[in-house]
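Practice set, problem 2.
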Amino acid sequence: MHSLFRRAKAPAPMPMPMLSFPGKKALRFTGDTSAAERDVDLAVLMHARSHVVLASECAKASAAETAAALRAYLRIIYASQMMGGSMQQMLRFAWRDAGSGKKKAKASASAAAAGQGQGHTSLSTEWAVALFALAAELARAAAEEDRRGSDGIRRACTALCDAAGALRAAAARSALPSDRLCHMTDACLAAFERLMLAQALECYFELAFAGGKPPALCSKIARQVSLDYVEVSVALASLQQQQAIDRSWAPHAQAKAAYFHAEACLLRARALREQGPGVAGEAVARLRLAVSVLEAAGKGPLKKSSSSSAAPAAVRDAAARLRREVDAELAAVEADNCQVYCERVPAADALADLPGLPEPLVRPTAVERVLREADGEAALASGGAPTIRH
C-alpha cells in the first residue's frame, strides 16, 4: 500500500500541485519625473521601484528574485513618512495585470501604456498593489517547490503563510477601485488568503504524516484541510461571476476537499484499529464512508474531462492511489471484524462528524516579518530603518 505521503524505498509520488494566482507587473514612470528626482526620499523610492520594473520585464526572473525586489521596494514605502503627504503627487505609478498568456499580457500592457487607466498617485494604493504582487510571487515560489522532502515542504508552507500575510495587509490598505486592477477587490483578497492558508495547512499535513505523527492527529489535520478547501471552493465559485478567476480553481479545491475528507476517514480508521475491540465496526464504517466520498468526487470534481473546469490530472492520480489504499484497508478491517470482533457496523449517517483542529496551525505572517530581508536583517517591528541591497 502506498499513500501519497508515505515514504518507501521506491520513489515517492509527486505531491498534489498547489494553486498560484496571477500577480501584477510594474510599469515604468511616464512623463517628466525631474522634480521627483530632486527630492531625496522620492529618488530612493524611484530607484527601488526601478528594480521591480526590471524584474517585471525580465522573462527569466525567478519568483525569489522578483519577491526580493518587491520586498526592498515595500520597505522603502513602509519606512516613508509620505503616506499622506503631498509630494507623492509628483509621481504616477502604473501597473498591469499579469496575464496567463502572451496575447493577454500584450493587450494589458498596451492599454496601460496608452491610457494609464491603471495608474494612480497614492502611496497607500501603491503599498496595497505591491503587496498583492509580492503575495503572487510567494505563491508562485511555493507552487514551484519540490515537496518530496521535508525542507521543500517547510519552504512552501512558509511562503504560503507569507503570501497570506501580504494579502491581508493589502486588503487593510487597498484604496484602488475594483474596476482598475483585477483581483484587488475585498472578496478576491479574502478568497486568495483562504486559499493560501488551506495550502499551507496541506503542507503541515504532509510534514506530520511524513514525520510519523499518530494517525489520530493526522486525521484531525486532514479533516481541517478538507473543511478549509470547502470554504475556498465556495469563495472561488462565487467570484467566477465577477472576476477573471480560472475556472479550474474551484474544482481543484473541491477535489482536494474530497481527497482530504477520505484521507481523514482512512487515518481515523487506523487510529481505531490501534484501540482494539469495541471500535472495529466504526472503523469499517469510516472506510466505507471514505469510499463513498471518493466515488461521489469521481462523478464531480475528480471526473476526467477535457474542459478547463476540471481538477488537474495529478489530483485525480492522487485520489486513485488513495482509493486503492482505502480499498485494501477496508478489506483487511472487514476480514478482522468478520473473523474476530463480529461488531455491528453503523450506517454512514449515524457516524459523528470527524473533528477538525481546535486551533489553527497556520496563520498569516505579520507584514513586518514578510518584509524582512532574507538574512533576517531590518526588523521593521523594532522600528529600525530598512536596508536596501543594490
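Problem 2, part (b): a different protein.
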Amino acid sequence: MNSALIVFATLSLISANEPKLNDVISALDKATSFFESTYDRLSVDGVAGFRLLQAFQQVLHVDFWTLKPGWTQTDSSLVYPKVRILECFGEEMSDRCMIQLLGTWEDNGVSCQKTETCSRLMMALNCPDYSLSHQLLYMIIIEHKGCSNIFGAQHMDSKSFHIIEDYKKVFCSNMMQRNLEIENNDFPYFQQDLFLENVMLCGHVGFSDFYKARWLEYILVWQQSAGCFGKHDESGYSPREEQYVFTKHKRVKRREKHLKGGCSDHMTSVAVGALGGYLRFYGTS
C-alpha cells in the first residue's frame, strides 16, 4: 500500500468514527466543566478514580498512565468457573499493598516492597468486583515501577513481563465477564461505578473489546446535564464517606463524595477515564 492509500485509509477511518469521537469529546468537555466548578469539594477519589491518599501522589502523575501502542482481546476461556461471593480483601489492605509498591509508605520510602500477604491476596484467583480491579491495578504498578522482585527476579526480564501480561489477561477476561453480567442485568445503578472502573482499567492496558460501541451509548446516557455521573434522583449536597460495606448484592461500596444533584466524584472520575480510553480507541483504531 503506497503512502497515498495509507493516508486515504486513515482519513476514511477517522471520518467513520467522527460522530463517536465528537460525542466523546463533548462528554469529556462537560465533565471537565463539572470538575472545574466543584474542584474545592472533590475528594482525592474524584481526581484519580481510586481511593488515593496523599501518599499515592505518584499515581496522579501523567507519565504513570502512559498508554502503550497496540491492542489485544480478552479470552472467555480464562473466566473463573466459580467466583467468591465476598471480596478477597478490603480497601485498607489494598491501599497498604499499593503503597508498599510505590514506596510512599514513608518519606523517601523504598519502593517494590514485597510481603507474603500482599503477594497472596493480589495474585489470588476467583476474586470478584473491586478486588479484581485492584489486582489489575497492582500489576500495573509492578510494571510501571519495575518491581521484578515480586516475581523473584532481579530485573524486569521477558519472563517477568510475560507473568504480568498473563495476570492482566486473566483479570481483564474476568472483568469483561463481570461487565457482561452487569449489562445483562440492565446496568443497575449500584454496579455502574464498577462497570466504568473495569472499562477504564482494562481499556488502559490495551483490551479493545472493552470499548464496545453499545457500551459507549449507555455511558453517554448516564451523564447528567451538569457533566457529572451519579444517581439522577438524588438532590441536595450530602458529602459522605462510605466504607466497604457488604450488601445483599455482595457488592462493596467505595469511599466517595456525593455532590449536588446526586453527582458522584468517584463515578465521574472513572467515567472520564473510560471516555478518555474511547477517545484513544476511536482515534487510533
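Answer key, part (b): The longest helix spans residues 3-38. The chain has one domain: 3-284.
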